[in-house]
Known about the structure:
Distance between the termini: 28 Å
Number of domains: 1
Structural class: mainly alpha
Helix content: 40-55%
Number of strands: 3
Order of helices and strands: HHEEEHHHH
Radius of gyration: 15 Å
Strand order of the largest sheet: 1-2-3
Number of helices: 6
Amino acid sequence: MKNxxxxxxxxxxxxxxxxxxxxxxxxxxxxYKSVSAAQNEAADILKVSYAKLKKxxxxxxxxxxxxxxxxxxxxxxxxxxxxxxxxxxxxxPYSGNAAVExxxxxxxxxxxxxxxxxxxxxxxxxxxxxxxFYGPDxxxxxxxxSVFLL
Length: 150
């Protein structure tokens, strides 16, 4: 799928893909849909994350698919990066190895470092490659990162 500001898939199929991601990682969005931000900060974070993921899916920036019982997320990149000729990044499922890798990064203000390490590991591209992302590609990584923080 080509990334653009024009929607390439409809709202319902996009919601189905976001629901697939949330279901796979056992994030119960339904419990929060009718809760106001004033009642629960987590509800607001979930709503914003859901909306941004849906928008990225509708634009063709993200695809989610099950393979052999595991969820794989494909990010279609807009930028040109050395070593990524197909302009896409495929993320393997989040694992204990990824959690351990993130724990190795100590200290406050290390959220970006942890994000780059996580996506470097899940994609097999390495943290340095992800750190070089810019514009819409970096924004997609940031919104996907919010899923793993929930």
